[in-house]
Design a protein that fits this description.
By secondary structure, this protein is an alpha+beta fold. The protein contains 4 helices and 12 strands; from the N terminus they run E-E-E-E-E-E-H-H-E-E-E-E-H-H-E-E. The protein has helices spanning about 50-65, 75-90, 150-165, 170-185, and strands spanning about 5-10, 10-15, 20-25, 25-30, 35-40, 40-45, 100-110, 115-120, 125-130, 140-145, 200-205, 210-215. The strands form 3 sheets. The protein has a 5-stranded antiparallel β-sheet with strand order 10-1-2-11-12, with helices on one face. Strands 5-6-7-8-9 form a 5-stranded antiparallel β-sheet, covered by helices on one side. Strands 3-4 form a two-stranded antiparallel sheet. Strand 5 and strand 6 form a beta hairpin. Helix 3 (about 150-165) packs across helix 4. It is globular. The two termini are about 15 Å apart.
């Protein structure tokens, strides 16, 4: 299972991912943190190939070393991640020799705006999507496992929100956690229940910092 959901407004964002990580067709862990804090207000999340996720983490660490502790800006991360996904991942193979299906999401503060960008190599080729909420607008997006219909996930999201009165941003995290449980139930690749573990991060306000959270089964 590889599932990411994001919820954005002009002054809030929340990213949630499952904990399942794979090497080829083999599951190698159920509690892998699929997101990393690149900066206090910039977060990068990935779907579930372990080797690729580790390469991205190592690359970000090297960027930090090269910067001598200086904060790196949004556009730098966008440029290097876009190049990595578009060029390096195009020919990448997993340990079984299959092409890597991988999506990388960068979310956080760009200047005075909260936004998210998704870059991916999939069976359909390279994808790139932008999520930028306007004033009084809410943006919800998902990255779903190959065997899961994204329209079904969106429909379930609407069903959940119709049952839960959303009054605070914490309610959004609850909705995302429930949605993750739904995807875990219908994902044809599930073998154990621990991948219902929700791990995510949220930021309140363009001057805020990401705060991590996790939930049990």
């Amino acid at each position: 299972m590889s599932f990411i959901s994001g919820f954005l407004t002009k002054d809030f964002c929340s990213i949630v991912a499952d904990g399942r990580m794979s090497q080829g067709a083999k599951t190698v862990g159920e509690n892998y943190k699929k997101f990393m804090l690149a900066e206090s207000n910039i977060l990068i999340a990935t779907t579930g190939n372990a080797q690729v996720a580790d390469i991205i983490k190592d690359f970000i660490k090297r960027l930090h070393v090269q910067s001598n502790g200086a904060q790196l800006n949004w556009q730098l991360y966008v440029n290097v991640i876009q190049q990595f996904v578009k060029e390096t991942l195009k020919e990448a193979k997993d340990i079984d020799g299959n092409c890597v299906n991988k999506i990388v999401v960068i979310c956080g503060v760009n200047g005075n705006k909260i936004m998210a960008l998704a870059f991916g190599q999939t069976d359909a080729g390279y994808i790139q999507r932008e999520y930028l909420p306007e004033e009084n607008e809410q943006k919800f997006f998902t990255m779903t496992p190959p065997g899961v219909n994204p329209d079904a996930v969106t429909k379930e999201f609407i069903s959940i929100t119709n049952k839960i009165e959303i009054r605070t941003y914490s309610d959004i995290v609850i909705v995302q956690s429930k949605l993750q449980d739904y995807v875990a139930e219908i994902d044809s690749g599930k073998s154990v229940n621990t991948h219902k573990m929700g791990m995510g991060a949220r930021i309140d306000g363009i001057n805020g910092r990401f705060k991590e959270w996790s939930s049990g089964n």
